Amino acid sequence: MKVLVTGGMGYIGSHTCIALHKAGITPVIYDNLSNASVKVFDQLFTITGERFDYVIGDIGDEAMLTKVLKEHKIEAVFHFAALKAVGESTEQPVNYYQNNVAKTLTMLKVMSKLDIKKIIFSSSATVYGEPQYLPIDEKHPISSTNPYGWSKVMVEQILKDLAQSDEQWLTIALRYFNPVGAHESGLIGESPKGIPNNLMPFIAQTAVGRRDCVSVFGDDYDTPDGTGVRDYIHITDLAAGHVDAFLHHQKGAGQTGTDTGNHAYNLGTGQGYSVLEMIKAFADASQKEIPYTLAPRRSGDIACNYADASLAETNLGWRATKTIEDMAADTWRWQTTYPNGLE
Ligand SMILES: NC(=O)c1ccc[n+]([C@@H]2O[C@H](COP(=O)([O-])OP(=O)(O)OC[C@H]3O[C@@H](n4cnc5c(N)ncnc54)[C@H](O)[C@@H]3O)[C@@H](O)[C@H]2O)c1
User: Fold this and answer.
1) In 3D, which of 140, 343, 190, 171 has the Cα closest to residue 264?
2) Would residue 68 count as lying in a domain?
3) What is the torsional sign of CA 253, 107, 183, 187?
4) Tens-digit pLDDT profile for residues 108-167
5) Residue nearest to atom 9 of ligand 1 (CA)
């Protein structure tokens, strides 16, 4: 079986290609390289021994997408392609809605026309807005605090409406908590452009000497050590979650027709770690001191956020198995092998 992986050269998409390959599913990568290096392709070959097909293309390009979906006889789409910087989205809302929502609509139209009616969508815990209770389960009210998050809310709603309008559609939204880590080979990982938005790449770049120190925003939250607590999930666990979700529902869809429809799952560990715990884990893994300074809270930040990931475990048989030590060790291996990313 062949599936299209939009954004497949990116951080999460590339790791998911490996998981798909392991499961005997052939990924065809479709990426416009707006936030990825084509060198990922060679790294994937080194890791898997397989040269995946890839197309440099934009999901908004109807003609190109049609050609690729037809030529490869694609059966489902794993949809990672999106812009993802929260701060940037508040400065460029139109770009974000255009790329993440409007182009997704174009893609769904093409898929419908070709009768390809299975999609696994990269959503985010950001669709829960400000947590009203913890741990956050899938029934938590949906909302957002920025255009990036709203773009995820909108696409989720579109997928829900689509599944309701046509009973052949299978639409699965996977709501990621905080993806971190890298492939255990150290050959691929996260390489943000400019100043990292997320904690782990910031810590890693500090450990490797690219940044002077980590700013810890707020040490007076109502948490055990006063710093913010988040649910970090290893990228390999996250990638496996996509395959498990797809295979679970795919099986049902083929045989009984009951597993179409719209589904949403949290992908997290259910366990929160504080900023200081992450810094310590990284210092242990790298055997380096990680300098940090305490800074005032950032507006909009919250004390704690972690998932109730039991639905994915019950329905899909999936659960995260990697530890905070794995997350730190694998990030460190990637960071030291490629301190400036693949470019
Ligand atoms: N990394 C996270 O912390 C996180 C958390 C929650 C959700 N997500 C979502 O997961 C998905 C993957 O994130 P990632 O961290 O791998 O990001 P990434 O930037 O590494 O990967 C996204 C890929 O999509 C490509 N792309 C963007 N727009 C495109 C378009 N119009 N046509 C074709 N390709 C396009 C980029 O070149 C990039 O390779 C995104 O949808 C993101 O919003 C990420």
Assistant:
1) 171
2) yes
3) positive
4) 999 999 999 999 999 999 999 999 999 999 999 999 999 999 999 999 999 999 999 999
5) 122
Rounded Cα gap, residues 87 and 298, in angstroms: 12
Give yes or no: residues 59 and 142 share one domain.
yes
CA proximity to 122, closest of 5, 251, 261: 5
Mutate to test the pocket of ligand 1, among 80, 97, 197, 266 (most ligand atoms within 8 A of CB): 80
Considering the domain architecture, whether residues 112 and 257 belong to the same structural domain is answered as yes
Distances (CA, A) of 236 to 71, 147, 179: 30, 28, 9
Structure tokens given for 301: 């930040």
- Return d(Cα 287, Cα 29) in angstroms, integer: 37
| Residue 77 forms part of a structural domain | yes
**pLDDT band for position 253 (50/70/90)?**
low
Q: Write the pLDDT tens digit of every residue in 187-201.
A: 999 988 888 889 999
- What letter represents residue 83's amino acid? L
For residues 17 and 121, membership in a common domain is answered with yes
Kindly report the backbone phi and psi dihedral angles of residue 178, in degrees, each rounded to the nearest multiple of 5, phi listed first: -115, 95
Q: How far is the CA of 257 from the centre of ligand 1 (A)?
A: 31
Q: What Å distances lie between residue 310 and 266, 270, 315, 317, CA to CA? A: 8, 8, 8, 9
Q: Is 187 among the domain residues?
A: no
Residues 226 and 236 in one domain: no
CA–CA gap between residue 179 and residue 200 (Å, rounded): 9
d(CA 199, CA 201): 6
Q: Which amino acid is at 107?
A: M
Structure tokens at 184: 């255990």
Active site residue 148: yes
pLDDT digits (tens, 9 = 90+) for 58-84: 999 999 999 999 999 999 999 999 999
185 located within any domain: no
What's the number of domains the chain is made of? Answer: 2
**Residues 63, 38, 101, CA angle at the centre, nearest 5°?**
45
